[in-house]
Amino acid sequence: MSPIQSNLGRGKSYMKKKIVTLVCISFVCASPALAVESVKSVDFHGYLRSGIGATTSGGDQSCFQANGADTKFRLGNECETYMELALGYEAWKKEKSIENFYIDSRIAYKSSQQNDWGETPGDGSGSNSDSIQFDRAVTAHPYRDSVVSVREANAQYRGLFGSEKTTIWAGKRFYQRHDIHMADFYYWDLSGAGGGIEYIQVGPGELSLAWVRNTDGAWANGLGDDFWEDEGVRPNVINNVFSARYAGLEINKNGSLELGVEYGAADLTDGQERLGFSDDNGFMLTAEHTQGELLGGFNKFIIQYATDSMAMTGNNDTHSHSASNLDYMWRVLNHGSIKLGSQVELMYAAWYESKKSDDKGSKDWFAIGIRPIYKWTETWNTALEVGYDNVHVKDGFYGEGGDGTNELTKITLAQQWQAGESIWARPVIRLFVTYAMWNDNDTPQTPGILDIDDSNGTTVGLQAEAWW
Amino acid sequence: MDSSSPIYHSIPDSPTPAANELKRKNTFLAALDKVDYQELNTEENVFITIDSKSQAIPFKTGKSYVRGIVLPDDLYSATIKIDAIAGKTVFVPTILILKQNFRPSRVIASSAFSYKPSGILHPDRLQASFEIDRAKGSETVAEKYIVIFTTDKDKQGTTTLQSLADQYAKARSLADPRLPSPVARHAATGLLKISVLDMKLISAPDTTWEDISGDDGRSNIIESPIVDSGTSRSADISAPAETIMSTELPDSGSSTMFAETEDMYNRLIRKSVDEGNIDKAWRLVQEGEKAGSVTVRRTFMKALDRKK
Q: What pLDDT score was predicted for residue A446?
């Protein structure tokens, strides 16, 4: 849809006594829907990162993440190939109307990039940042370390109630995800198979309602999976999450507020109830303020509070986990991207999260990071990223072990070649060196590459990142 | 990608200075046949600036700076893509395509231009494509001149551009970032990029007797001399256009040529055909049409028929 406003033109006509006359043209009034017959084309979007790296004391590239933290600061700290290919298409358009049908698809691929040939299904894909408890990275077969996943497959009916943005959708999708880019942290992410209606203009804001589901496996129901034969009961627990979001409230100049509530509950069968599967439910509240036009960029401030089954939310995980054993969680986050002059631009982020379990254990996570870049030319800049994570576990929270604090600091210096001067411009190729240090409690990082009792590590590498 | 390449500096930050200068621009002697038509440049990355030094014409839709392009005689067919580069302002083009006699053939309305967000190798722009088809029998065989201008109404509008935050959100399938998008105000001046694609040339540039001898009895190649409003044959869009002539001028069915001169041309043409000098007769037809005659072609074909 062209946002140009076009219409009738009527001007004065000028009389010329010449052989070739001045031609005066008037146009038939062209409303966008009538005049613009869109040439159908496929929307091709995607993301990829891939590269090569090494740990300077020997071995494959290490990636560093504080134990108990859900994310890491990512510059020069990513050890996998990850790619998304998305194809979308306007399949149908109603005549003389803005209503149309759009189909969307997105496939993700991930591998440990150990070899040219990486088969799926891999038996240990993932980055070298997996902690010692999940030793997939340690056992990965070098030629079989890839996985593929269809993340989005849906159809959207757009243009309802006379508004281009109002949409009814059904299928699998990333649902209105909110993220902190520099930590790859999706702090508000209700994705999966579902359906709903988005962006209905209600008063000053836009209302979106959705029903999405997530499923927990036998590990989460607290009872295992050996009752199918005897009892005819399935071990997996379906959780339904109902979401309502109200966004676009302009409460100050260039500022926008979004409020959301997600309610999640286990959907147990009779058999599962009989066996005593946990049927926890819970809710999560989010308030997010976005400030635009701030020093050439933006700032986002977020408060979240969740209870019971919704309190386990981590990264990519605004879902319900009925066997969560958690009482509540709250988080305060602040992140953004600003310019200081014409040659310096930076991303920054800080957050604090506190989780309390039913048995009075707690886990508190504090993280802060900053990524300034200095632009030498339009395509050549130097980036520095400094990030700090602190995870404090008390009274044996959720299998994390007794009391203790895990601390990790990561510093990365990178030379970047980018398609443009903005800190958001991609593709980019980076040459980086990363140094990380951590406390005793936080050992080991990448066991088998670094020594078990090492307290610091250095890596170097070249990475490409792109989205389109 | 936001580009700060030097070429894009010619896009003004505000539409006001150019609009004021345009008001003062003298267009007393302006006419379509007085536009400085530049030969179509078929190289890559050809940029055209429309600025206060450009000529202006008082169209019915409003006075506008113009740029003119003349198609080379040996251009048989091509797709011409026009990008109006958007910065803080953007020039919203309307394309007028004229025949050899400067009469209108087609109009590509500004609504045909759709917004294309900046990508890896190009900035934000409004883009439209149209076909040039000078094959015999095509409605557009006589097209020769392209005039690029903008209308008063279009100058009042704005175009919302896609911010980098929106591009990131679409690429990663994220929530609406709720950040203000940059807006380009429509202006009287701006920067355009012209691309010529799928170009086919006529092998022999000069039309000779063989070309028009009509092996398949193609004497019906003569289209009606009456200016027909432009139903575009291109895959893209052009709004139907009505050509309105001022009441002082002769109606669109007849020549604008002086009657005696027209007679002279027609006589000479008949004489040349009778003498077997077809080349000369054809030259006279071309000259006569350039001068505004709508009868010389008919005369020529009739003479040929008689000769057979």
A: 82
Spatial separation of the C-alpha atoms in residues B6 and A465, rounded to whole Å: 27
For chain A, say whether B303 makes contact (Cβ under 8 Å). no
**Cα A60 from Cα A202, distance rounded (Å):** 54
Does position A287 have pLDDT exceeding 70, yes or no?
Answer: yes
**pLDDT, mean over chain A:** 86
Report CB contact under 8 Å: A292, B242.
no
pLDDT-based confidence at residue A6 (cuts at 50, 70, 90): very low
The residue among B116, B173, B242, B248 with the most chain A CBs within 10 A of its CB, best to mutate, is B173
**Chain A residues close to B107, C-beta within 8 Å:** 25, 27
Query: What integer pLDDT is reported at residue B279 of this predicted model?
Result: 84
Q: Pick the range with the lowest mean pLDDT from A106-110, A215-219, B62-66, B190-194.
A: A215-219
A399 pLDDT exceeds 70?
no
Residues near A253 by beta carbon (within 8 Å), at least 6 away in sequence:
A293
Which is higher by pLDDT, B227 or A398?
A398
Over residues B261-277, mean pLDDT:
88
| Sequence-ordered list of residues with C-beta below 8 angstroms from that of B101, at least 6 positions apart, any chain | A20, B142, B289, B290, B292
Cα–Cα distance, A359 to B81 (Å, whole number): 68
- Taking the C-alpha atoms of residue B155 and residue B56, their distance in angstroms, rounded to an integer, is 15
Q: Cβ–Cβ of A6/B111 closer than 8 Å?
A: yes
Please, which residues have CB within 8 angstroms of residue A284's CB and are 6 or more apart in sequence? A260, A261, A262, A264, A304, A305, A306, A307, A310, A311, A313, A318
CA-nearest residue of chain B to A188? B175
Alpha-carbon distance B4 to nearest alpha carbon in chain A (angstroms): 7
Q: Are B94 and A4 spatial neighbours (Cβ–Cβ below 8 Å)?
A: no
Q: Name the residue facing B248 among A15, A35, A293 (closest C-beta).
A: A15
B48–A contact, CB cutoff 8 A: no
Cα end-to-end span (Å), chain B: 65
CA–CA distance, A285 with A118 (Å, rounded to integer)? 41
Q: Give ∠ CA A172-A177-A183 in degrees, rounded to 5.
A: 125
- Window from A148-162, B104-118, B257-271 with minimum mean pLDDT: B257-271
| Residues constituting chain A | 468
Top-confidence range, A455-459, B135-139, B142-146: A455-459
Residue A19 identity: I
Most confident segment among A111-115, A132-136, B234-238, B271-275: B271-275
Where are the strands (E) in A33-184, listed by range? Answer: 42-55, 81-93, 100-111, 146-158, 167-173, 178-180
Judge if ipTM > 0.90: no
Chain A contact for B229 (CB, 8 A cutoff):
no
Backbone angles phi, psi at B287, to 5 degrees: -65, -45
Identify the residue whose tokens are 């100050």: A252
Greater confidence (A39 vs A20) lies with A39
* β-strands B183-186, B158-160 pairing: antiparallel
Question: What one-letter code names the amino acid at A283?
Answer: F
How far apart, in whole angstroms, are the C-alpha atoms of residue B290 and residue B308? 27
Chain A residues lying within 8 Å of B239, measured CB to CB: 27-28, 30, 35
Give Cβ neighbours of residue A39 (< 8 Å, ≥ 6 apart): B235, B236
User: Residues B12-25: pLDDT tens digits?
Assistant: 888 888 888 888 88
Q: Cα(A16)–Cα(A24) distance, rounded to whole angstroms?
A: 11
Per DSSP, helices labelled H in B124-232 are 152-155, 164-172, 209-212
Q: Which residue has the higher pLDDT, A446 or A352?
A: A352
> In angstroms, what separates the C-alpha of B161 from chain A's closest C-alpha?
9
B29 close contact with A: CB closer than 8 A: no
Q: Residue A242: which of A221, A264, A222, A259 has the closest Cα?
A: A264
